[in-house]
Design a protein that fits this description.
By secondary structure, this protein is an alpha/beta fold. The chain has 9 helices and 14 strands. It folds into 2 domains: about 140 residues, NAD(P)-binding Rossmann-like Domain (Rossmann fold, 3-Layer(aba) Sandwich); about 180 residues, Dihydrodipicolinate Reductase, domain 2.
Length: about 325
């Protein structure tokens, strides 16, 4: 692979796509050219990269000719339609949608945890959901130290996972309420402003949502341990960015909170903020725009013999999507030099 690369971003006009382009520039990624792609409705729009306004092109099968790496940050439908064709043209696809995450022959990667899986790719590498990236970053060092047996995870999810239309609808609802107008809900199943909604995605036959099952399945795949029992509850909260998670972890052997704190402090991608007596713990308003997953409130879980409870916060669009995807690309090119 050449030192200066031709990079495509499918979904360049999405919340995640725009952040990926921003992160590529910030991290001085060796891109000779950026090819922003979107559906036909985005014709006429541009994206900015290194002070240049680059026209967004309509995505089609020929869009990936001569492209080295393509980030897919659009919809699952777009990934299903174009990703395999792009890979057949010699382009390595890094897909941030749910499309390929649980395919057995496609690596699901959080580089701080399982970067070794990148070398086995066959043209497509999947990036987990932001909530699974966050959960895996926290669980991996604890699993290596004390063996995680069971996890109960409640994730309080920002609306940006649902894209720009969700961000706009939340803003409109807040404005409507302050102006004594009735709110309109087209994106959300109920009023989102000043509310919490215990549903992301559709419900399944087991009464969990598809997102809740994805978090469990993806986290197990990244940790490479299908035996870990995980129960997830996803809750939409009226935040623009940053997922927050309350996590209860049962381990095979006793893990004192001080040891857990020390293990997490040494872990890449993690920043520990844990001094509750002084009001120090992770908060979404401070984690927004940051590259790490923040962890605090680390304490013994009093409901089980070997248990740890903790709280984590991570920017779902930046860390959970863009940084993770670009880190995959960085590892990829370092392996192929």
């Amino acid at each position: 692979m050449a030192k200066q690369l031709r990079i495509a971003v499918a979904g360049a006009n999405t919340t995640a796509g725009k952040e990926i382009i921003s992160v590529l520039e910030e991290r001085d990624f060796p891109a000779a050219a950026i090819v922003p792609l979107a559906t036909q409705g985005s014709l006429g729009s541009t994206v900015q990269y290194r002070d240049e306004d680059i026209p967004v092109q309509t995505i089609q099968n020929t869009s990936f000719q001569g492209v080295d790496i393509a980030f897919f940050a659009s919809t699952e439908k777009i990934s299903r339609e174009y990703a395999r064709g792009a890979a057949k043209q010699g382009c390595t696809v890094i897909d941030t949608t749910p499309c390929f995450r649980m395919d057995e022959d496609i690596p699901l990667v959080v580089p701080e945890i399982n970067a070794h899986r990148i070398s086995g790719h066959k043209g497509i590498i999947a990036s987990p959901s932001p909530a699974a990236v966050q959960a895996a970053l926290v669980l991996a060092p604890i699993h290596r130290t004390a063996v995680v047996l069971r996890v109960v995870l409640s994730t309080y999810q920002a609306v940006s996972d649902m894209g720009d239309t969700a961000l706009e609808e939340l803003t409109e609802q807040i404005a409507d309420l302050f102006n004594f107008r009735e709110t309109r809900s087209a994106v959300f199943p109920h009023q989102m402003a000043f509310n919490v909604i215990p549903q992301t995605a559709s419900f399944m036959d087991n009464a969990y949502t598809a997102d809740e099952m994805r978090i469990a399945d993806e986290t197990r795949k990244v940790l490479e341990d299908g035996a870990i029992r995980i129960s997830a509850t996803t809750v939409l909260v009226p935040m623009y960015y940053c997922h927050s998670q309350s996590v209860n972890i049962e381990t095979a052997k006793k893990l004192p909170p001080d040891t857990a704190r020390s293990v997490l402090k040494r872990s890449p991608g993690i920043r520990v903020e844990d001094n509750p007596a002084e009001g120090v713990y992770p908060l979404p308003v401070y984690a927004t725009g940051k590259d790490e997953c923040f962890v605090g409130r680390i304490r013994e879980d009093l409901s089980t013999e070997n248990g740890i409870a903790l709280w984590s916060v991570s920017d779902n669009i930046r860390k959970g999507t863009a940084i993770n995807a670009v880190q995959i690309a960085e590892h990829l090119i370092s392996m192929e030099r």
